[in-house]
Structure formats: structure tokens, C-alpha cells
Amino acid sequence: MPSFSKAILTNRVLAKAKLHGLNKGDLKGAFEKYQRAEDSSVPGSKNYIKTTRDYEVGVTAKRKDGSSWIIISCWKRKLYK
């Protein structure tokens, strides 16, 4: 599993997180405790997604080198049941 402690958060991700009402803990949960991982449209990156009762929180991450990651995007989507 990827480690959030070795992840770099871009300024864009921090701005998007604030816009979506997410904090670093939400991003960490999606990244480290994801329930689903899928290929991203960004070459060489993956989407890590965690689902709660009402929302889906996800991050897009790309491996920088052997041990660190760059989180390049995040989102929060309301689940409609």
C-alpha cells in the first residue's frame, strides 16, 4: 500500500481539497486505505478511491521515485442511492 508520509501534495491539490471541503486526513484515508484502485487518464498514475456512506473520496497519485509519490488531484463525489 502507498504511504501518505512519503507523498508530496501539490499546491493545486491543496486548493482543490479546500474547494471540496477535504482535509489532509481525508486525502490520507483515500490514499492509504483505499477500497478501489484504478488506472487514471494521466499516464503512469492511479486513482485511489475510498467510499463512505454518502461520498466517494479519491486521489490521483503518481510515483515520483522508488519510495515517494506525488498526489496530483483529488475529488469528492456524492453517492446517489
Could you give the count of β-strands? 5
Specify the CATH class. Alpha Beta
Instruction: Specify the overall morphology.
Output: globular
Low-confidence parts: none
Cα-based radius of gyration, to the nearest Å = 12 Å
The largest pleated sheet is described as: 5 strands, mixed
User: Helical percent range?
Assistant: 10-25%
The number of helical segments is 2
Give the spatial strand order of the biggest sheet: 1-5-4-3-2
Query: Which band does the percent of strand residues land in?
Result: 35-45%
Instruction: Measure the end-to-end span.
Output: 29 Å
What is the domain tally?
Answer: 1
Give helix and strand order, one letter per element, not per position. EHHEEEE
CATH topology: Nuclear Transport Factor 2, Chain: A
* CATH architectural label: Roll
Provide the residue-averaged pLDDT: 90
The chain-level structural class is: alpha+beta
Task: Explain the overall architecture.
The chain has 81 residues and is α+β, with helices and mostly antiparallel strands. Helices cover 23% and strands 41% of the residues. It has one domain (4-78): Nuclear Transport Factor 2, Chain: A (Roll), CATH 3.10.450. The chain is built from two helices and five strands. The chain has a five-stranded mixed beta sheet. Strand 4 and strand 5 (69-78) form a beta hairpin. The radius of gyration is 12 Å and the shape is globular.
Task: Summarize the topology.
Elements: E1 7-9, H1 11-20, H2 24-32, E2 36-39, E3 45-51, E4 55-63, E5 69-78
Parallel strand pairs: 1-5
Antiparallel strand pairs: 2-3, 3-4, 4-5
